Amino acid sequence: MAADVLESLISRFPDLQVEEAKGHSLMLAEDGQQIALLEALKAEGFTLLVDIGMIDHWSEGREPRFDLVYILRRPTSGEAVWVKVKVGDGETPPTAIPVFHGANWPEREIYDLFGVTFAGHPNMERILMPDEWEGHPLRRDYPIVGTMPTPPLARE
Amino acid sequence: MATERRPLVLNMGPQHPSTHGVLRLVLELDGETVLSCEPVIGYLHTGIEKTAENLTYNQAVTVIDRMDYLSPLTNNLAYVLAVEKLLKIEVPERTRSIRVLFCELSRMASHLVWLGTAAMDMGAMSVFFYCFREREKILDLIEMTTGARMNPSYFRVGGLMADLPQGFSEKLHALLDEFPEWLDNYRKLLGTNVLWVERLRGAAVVSQEAALAYGLTGPTLRSTGVELDLRKAQPYSGYEQFEFDVPVRQNGDAYDRYELRLEEMVQSARIVRQAIDRLPDGPWHIDDWRIFPPDKHQHVEKNMEALIYHFKLFTEGFKVPAGEAYQGVEGPRGEIGCYVVSDGSARPMRVRARTPSFYNLQALPLMVKDRLIADLITAIGSIDIVLGDVDR
């Protein structure tokens, strides 16, 4: 990332930790800062929302257990930046929809598969799993073998 | 008697033929005008990300294949490159070129399916037969090399499943020589067809700003004037050595996407020709028995040490240093990304797949609002979704 862009970001977010990796820069944001940071990055030209993903560190016993990762790209150069926030179980990070409309579905997917709800999301419902599903399958403590009975083929 | 005018709620799908898979759309209609459209997805959810967590790194290649089943090799590439980043290994030149070659062949095959099905949605039946006939010739080449028409799992961490077979180059050159004629035919069938052009022009429009905010990639993004192609912008697997152009259009409508995809096929053919003509000799996999299995006839049958490595690799797999890596590649539909997290064991702790169709489909309601229901069919065709890619 260009030095001047980085400097202006750090002056606005003093707690920001930045690592340069091959192919992208990684920013570790403080909890609650990520939306303002995403907005600032969007204003700096990172206007393409590539992905919002989540990683569960339960098996390592880490607290807070989740990593929420936003990947943005600068459409002119393809340069990528990651914004990473730690999220604990039961916490409700704010939705990124006001900054990127495309955050709607990936945030629903995270709710569906990890059980983390986003504050301010207009439609926080399951997206991939059936509505009546119990549990959130991509949590590391969710078993790989099915625990629910096979749904009936037709409704009575 | 005065009647109240109420919108009609219509369920389209999940088994409508023009939805290209099991997509359900809940439409609110006023006559033939779409007031709102809500895609309901998940009918093809197979838990690929969860399954991959419970497989060894090389086994996971076979499930990653099945996301975007029209261009499985591109999925493979994103995944193996991400794992190779974690392992900090570089594959030989020949491997990289063969990977590029097959990715571009996949792109051509995938665009042919798109062209055939999109044209069939519009009622142009015959294009479908030609496209599938010619796609089969590409799949023949893939089958000749990998043993499977679809889902070949050809790319492995550290190399390939096998080297190119004998006679491959001749067959590929024959195909490439034929290719311009195929395109001519499609252009004659569709490009000069008033119905096709009129239905596509001005339909399914998306603005540049919305396209970026919704995370659209691939031809759908490039039709709005954004020149972002990861093969050029952030080259991987040696794409920087190939000469090709990135076609861009400005209107952001279905017709632009049609033109872009035809043009992309021409560019893919250019890359394939360069790859096969300049294909370097040499090894097609890394020489590290801890990661890539030793050759059966040359080593395993003669050397006890090799046998042990072979056995360990297929029973336990190889360990990957802890860390995380993301690799985005330019697939036929847009950026296919694999985010692989390792905890140091022989199985990935997390495989996150960023699939282009998921994001592209999200913008569908935007494209069809206040348009006719016929334009909805055009829109679904023009964004080229694969439901396996959406639901994973």
Largest interface: chains, residues each: A-B, 41 and 44 residues
Helix tally of chain A equals: 3
> Pairing-aware structural class of the strands and helices of chain B?
mainly alpha
Point out poorly predicted stretches of chain B: none
How would you describe this protein?
The complex is a heterodimer of chains A (156) and B (392). Chain A has three helices and five strands. With 156 residues, chain A is an alpha+beta fold. Chain A has a five-stranded mixed beta sheet, covered by helices on one side. The N and C termini of chain A lie far apart (59 Å). The mean pLDDT of chain A is 83. Chain B has 392 residues and is mainly α. Chain B has 17 helices and eight strands. In chain B, the strands form three sheets. Chain B has a three-stranded antiparallel beta sheet. In chain B, strands 6-7-8 form a three-stranded antiparallel beta sheet. Chain B has a two-stranded antiparallel ribbon with strand order 4-5. In chain B, helix 2 (57-64) packs antiparallel against helix 3 (72-87), helix 4 packs antiparallel against helix 5 and helix 6 packs antiparallel against helix 11. The longest helix of chain B has 29 residues, at 93-121. Chain B starts with 7 loop residues before the first strand and ends with a helix. The model of chain B has no long low-confidence stretch (mean pLDDT 88). Classes of the chains: A alpha+beta (156), B mainly alpha (392). At the A-B interface, strand 3, strand 4 and helix 3 of A face helix 1, helix 8, helix 10, strand 6 and strand 7 of B.
Key features of this structure:
heterodimer, A: 156 residues, alpha+beta, Beta Polymerase, domain 2, five-stranded mixed β-sheet, 3 helices, 5 strands, B: 392 residues, mainly alpha, Cytochrome-c3 Hydrogenase, chain B, three-stranded antiparallel β-sheet, 8 strands, 11% strand
